[in-house]
Each structure stands twice: as structure tokens, then as C-alpha cells.
Design goal:
Blueprint lengths: L1 E5 L7 H9 L2 H6 L2 E2 L3 H16 L7 H9 L7 E5 L19 H11 L4 E8 L2 H10 L6 H5 L9 H11 L5 E5 L3 H13 L12 H6 L2 H13 L5 H15 L2 H4 L10 H19 L4 E4 L2
Parallel strand pairs: 1-3, 1-4, 2-3, 4-5, 5-6
Length: about 290
């Protein structure tokens, strides 16, 4: 079986991703692609992964998981998503930058050793990711949350390197959360196992969440009057409509943390952009870019 697992990271539109995919549930089901509801697999998969990491995995773990996840025994592909797979928010920086990423990915690979597993990861500028995840880490100070780690030192490429080292046999697809509105359709298509240009319902869901109603109406009208757009053309059109109709407070992110100023935020952002370019050059990684 093919298993596509979106492993996060936290605060990167993971729940919306699953909702967009589920808009295609009937079509996907006809093609043997299962998208189970998260309640069916997140708790049991978490337990199985933790048991595997403790050396307490069982020979029947795969069968137990599939029985819990699937209604259709004939499914050839299963799509799973858990934005908190790598860590729950309070412990995302507990002992390092998502320190359990490698062992958790390896546990999944071991459980589904006879299957074709693909990992999918969304990354986000640490200048906005850290405050967003910290906001969900209730009851901890920022110093406690980060363990004193210098935000300028955070590199997603280092995390990706750990994932590749732990699971070199598992293909990894990565995209930047900042690009998500432009590449949403390709992300959905790749998760479903289609070619990157396959048009799916929901490919403009993220755009709709940050665009004024008038803008979406005009956008839909434009597409209906100009059929046959290629994905590249669609992206240019999306960008043009976002420039004109995006709702400012939904696309602009303010950073408000003690001791953080514009100079630090700019430095973190510059390092992140270089880091994303480095990830795109890593072997075994597919980087989705606009």
C-alpha cells in the first residue's frame, strides 16, 4: 500500500489541508485512495509510534492500524495528516528543534516496512513559527519553551537532514507555508498521488481564506471566462488577485515577543530564505515552489 503522511509542522495550515483533500473524498475513493478522518488514526498511530520507539512494537501493529483506519480493504493509497506528529506545541523545542522528528519518522518506516511510505512536511519562517507555536504552549514562559535556543540558529535543513538520515528510503516532499496559497493545488495533488498538475476541488481553499469575497467572486468569474489555464498560469492569476484583494490582517503576520525587534526578525527571515533554498538542493527531497 502507498501511505502519504503529512507530519506537520505545527501552525502550518495542516487542518485546512485535510479539509481540502476531503472535498475530493468521493473521487479519491473511486480511485482507491482513502482519506480517513483524523480521529480514526491520530491516537492509534501515536500510540503505535511511541511503542515502536520504546522497542515495544508488535508484529501485528500494521494490521491493527489498517483495521482502525480503513473501511475499504481494497484501497491502494492512504493519505494521513497530523500537524502535531513531530511534537505537541509545548514540547516542540524541548531539548532541541523538534528533537523527536527522526525517531518518529523511523518508527513509521519500521511499522509500515512493507509499504511505500512518503513523508510530507510544511516549513515556516521561524520568526513567525516560534511565536505561533509558543502561543499554543500554555503555562510556559518563552524562555522555558525555547530552552534558551538562539532563534537565529534554527534551520529546517538540519531537521530535514535528520529525517533523511533516519529514513533515507522514504521520499520527502517539502513546501514553505508562505508559498502555500500559491502551491495548494500541487500539494493536494501530490498527497493524493496524482501528477502535480492534476486539478482537485479545494485547490483555492487557502486563497479564499485570505481574500475578500468580492475578489473571490471576480477570480472565479475570470477562471470561468478563461478556461484551460495551466497550473503556472493559475498561480500568476492567483498572485495578481491576492495583490489586489488579499485581506491585510490575514496575510500580514506581526511578531510580538520580548526582546525581538525588526532587525532580529529580518535576520531570521533572511536565514530562513537561504535555508529553504538549501533544502531544495538536498537529495531525496522534492521542494514544491511557486
Amino acid at each position: 500500500m502507498e501511505i502519504a503522511l503529512h507530519i506537520g509542522a505545527n501552525c502550518t495550515e495542516g487542518e485546512r489541508l485535510l479539509k481540502s483533500l476531503l472535498r475530493n473524498a468521493d473521487r479519491l475513493g473511486r480511485e482507491g485512495i482513502a482519506v480517513p478522518g483524523p480521529a480514526r488514526y491520530r491516537p492509534v498511530l501515536r500510540e503505535a509510534v511511541m511503542a515502536e520507539m520504546r522497542g515495544q512494537g508488535t508484529m501485528t501493529a500494521r494490521e491493527v492500524l489498517l483495521d482502525a483506519m480503513l473501511d475499504d480493504a481494497e484501497a491502494r493509497r492512504m493519505v494521513l495528516s497530523n500537524p502535531a506528529f513531530l511534537s505537541l506545541p509545548p514540547w516542540a523545542m524541548d531539548g532541541g528543534f523538534l528533537p523527536s522528528a527522526g525517531p518518529k519518522a523511523q518508527a513509521v518506516g519500521d511499522i509500515f516496512a512493507d509499504d511505500q511510505v512518503e513523508l510530507f512536511l510544511t516549513i515556516r519562517n521561524p520568526a513567525t513559527w516560534l511565536p505561533a507555536v509558543f502561543a499554543q504552549a500554555k503555562g510556559r514562559s518563552f524562555e522555558e519553551f525555547t530552552g534558551g535556543i538562539d532563534p537565529l540558529s534554527l534551520r529546517w535543513s538540519e531537521l530535514v537532514g535528520r529525517l533523511r538520515e533516519a529514513t533515507p528510503e522514504l521520499p520527502l516532499t517539502v513546501w514553505c507555508n508562505e508559498d502555500a496559497v500559491l502551491v495548494w493545488g500541487e500539494v493536494l495533488a501530490r498527497l493524493a498521488g496524482f501528477g502535480p498538475t492534476e486539478p482537485l476541488e479545494g485547490r483555492f481553499d487557502l486563497m479564499a481564506s485570505v481574500t475578500a469575497d468580492e475578489g473571490m467572486e471576480r477570480f472565479c468569474k475570470y477562471l470561468s471566462e478563461h478556461p484551460g489555464q495551466t497550473p503556472a498560469q493559475e498561480r500568476r492569476v492567483v498572485g495578481a488577485f491576492l495583490d489586489k484583494y488579499a485581506i491585510a490582517d490575514r496575510v500580514e503576520e506581526e511578531v510580538d515577543l520580548p526582546g525581538w525587534d525588526a532587525t532580529l526578525v529580518d535576520a531570521i527571515t533572511d536565514a530562513y530564505e537561504e535555508d529553504a533554498a538549501a533544502i531544495a538542493r538536498m537529495p531525496g527531497v522534492t521542494m514544491i515552489v511557486p
